[in-house]
Amino acid sequence: WQCFRALCCKGPPPPRPEYDLVCIGLSGSGKTSLLSQLCSESPENIVSTTGFSIKAVPFQNAILNVKELGGADNIRKYWSRYYQGSQGVIFVLDSASSEDDLETARNELHSALQHPQLCTLPFLILANHQDKPAARTVQEV
Questions:
Q1: Taking the complete model, does pTM exceed 0.90, yes or no?
Q2: What is the average per-residue pLDDT within 3-15?
Q3: Residue 49 labeled ligand binder
Q4: Does 53 count as an annotated binding residue?
Q5: Burial profile 57-71: b = 16 or more Cβ within 10 angstroms, e = fewer
């Protein structure tokens, strides 16, 4: 009886805290692939995000609700409309991109770092595509 009572009467586990993050970066930097990997989804059918998507990324002690914003030039100007309520930022950049794209990414990162809704938040800057031959080191990025 004691074992059964311990199993059935324990009640639901306490809710995990949830955190709202925004994930930004230029097109092709790997934002969608990163989130798919974190959600244990198949990497086979990944398509670039054209607007935005939201994924709940479960961890043992927390859930991250990540708003992934498309990185195309015509979409980046709308990023700031989705910043409200964010508690952290993931900035993904393609470490194997061209100098021009790296400069564009640098400008977008600086803009995000200075945005009033983001400037006090923690930032994770992910130098993606380190497996490519043209990848820059962290120091070079």
A1: no
A2: 64
A3: yes
A4: no
A5: beeeeeebbbbbbbb
Instruction: Write down the pLDDT at residue 137.
Output: 85
Q: Is 70 annotated as a binding residue?
A: no
Confidence bin at 50 (pLDDT 50/70/90): confident
27: annotated binding-site residue?
Answer: yes
- 26 annotated among ligand-binding-site residues: yes
Is 71 marked as binding a ligand?
yes
CATH topology of domain 18-128: Rossmann fold (3.40.50)
Q: How far apart are CA 66 and CA 22, in angstroms?
A: 6
Q: Is 110 annotated as a binding residue?
A: no
Give the model's confidence band at 1: pLDDT under 50 very low, under 70 low, under 90 confident, else very high: very low
Binding residue per annotation — 50?
A: no
Q: Cβ(62)–Cβ(19) under 8 Å?
A: yes
